[in-house]
Amino acid sequence: MAKSIAVLGSTGSIGTQTLDVAEREGDIAVRALTARSNIKLLEEQIRKFRPALAAVADEKKAAELRAAVADTSTRVLGGERGVIECAAEAGSDTVVTAVVGIAGLRPTVAAIEAGKDIALANKETLVTAGGIVMPLARERGVKILPVDSEHSAIFQSIADQKRFLKRIIITASGGPFFGMSRAELAGKTRADALKHPNWTMGAKITVDSATLVNKGLEIIEASHLFGLGVDDITPVVHRESIVHSLVEFCDGSVIGQLGVADMRLPIAYALTYPERKIPVTAPLDLVKIGSLTFYDIDNAAFPAVELAKKAARAGGTMPAVLNGANEEAVAAFLEDRCGFLDITDLIAEAMEAHRPTASPSLDDIAAADLEARYAVRRRLGR
Ligand code: NDP
Ligand code: MG
Question: Atom 20 (ligand 1): residue with closest C-alpha?
Answer without folding.
Answer: 36
